[in-house]
Amino acid sequence: MRISAEALVETEDEKDIYLIENGREKKVGVTTEKIKFVRIDGREAIEREQTLNSDVLGDRKALP
Hints:
Number of helices: 0
Shape: elongated
Number of strands: 4
Helix content: under 10%
Largest sheet: 4 strands, antiparallel
């Protein structure tokens, strides 16, 4: 089975992160996800990068 990437596009998405304590909602950070196409060992691949930016939870980056 072959999967076609013709309908896929590189993109970036950003979402707010909230904590709820004692019934009160507080924004504590933002997550960002980037999707891009790369070549690895001559083959096409999709690379996904996730980032969390938060003074409360800490900053983190997840790479493949």
